[in-house]
Structure formats: structure tokens, C-alpha cells
Amino acid sequence: QARLVESGGGSVQPGGSLRLSCAVSRGSFMSYDMGWHRQAPGKERELVAGISSDGMTTYADSVKGRFTISRVNAENTLYLQMNSLKPEDTAVYYCSLGTYYSGTYYANHGYWGQGTQVTVSS
């Protein structure tokens, strides 16, 4: 069974950048579709971005043009580069295994990391 461990969260001022990482152990990373979700206090978990095993990507409208999801199969690692961060990006960010289908991503495999906190504040 795959194990997912996120890192890279922290506190940053508006307009700043962070890069989140999700290290995957066990299983066949290169065959996985993967994604990032986030959950802010009092809100439901929402999709941020997804990437297929062959590199196709999808993004929430709220992060298009600012965030970039990527993967390095040789490192068994998923990344989320976040630029031009806004206070409304403040949340716990989770990586997951799922299914990339018809231009969107579904976290339907039941595998999640523990989450990493991102706080954007002046």
C-alpha cells in the first residue's frame, strides 16, 4: 500500500511563493494519477490540481496561472509550486492518489497524506 508524506508548507506573505512536496513510498509511483486538495477552516476539502500518470494536468479556476503541479517519477515525488499566494490560499494541503478522467481528477483511491499547513498573511 502506498504511503504519502507532504512537506513544504509554512507561512508566507501575500504575493510570496511556496513549493509543496509529496513523497510516495511503496507501490508504482509512475502509474499513479495524483492530486492536491486543500481544506480551509470551516470549509469543505476542495480540489486544487491533478496530474495523470502521463503528465496531463487540471487546475481549479482559483489557482490557474499561479499554481503548477508536477511530478518527478525518478524521485517518486509530486510537487505543487504555488506563486502569487493570496490570503484565501490559506489551508491545509493534502496530496492523494486517484483517477484522472475526462479532464478532471478524482481522489477516489482512499490514499491521502497527513497534510501540510499553508498560511498566507501579512
Q: Briefly, what is this?
A:
With 122 residues, this protein is mainly β. The chain is 0% helix and 52% strand. The chain contains no helices and eleven strands.
Could you explain how this protein is built, in words?
By secondary structure, the protein is mainly beta. It contains no helices and eleven strands. The strands form two sheets. Strands 2, 4, 5, 6, 9, 10 and 11 form a seven-stranded mixed sheet that branches. A four-stranded antiparallel sheet has the order 1-3-8-7, with no helix packed on it. It is globular, with a radius of gyration of 13 Å. It starts with a strand and ends with a strand. 34% of the residues are buried. The model has no long low-confidence stretch (mean pLDDT 96).
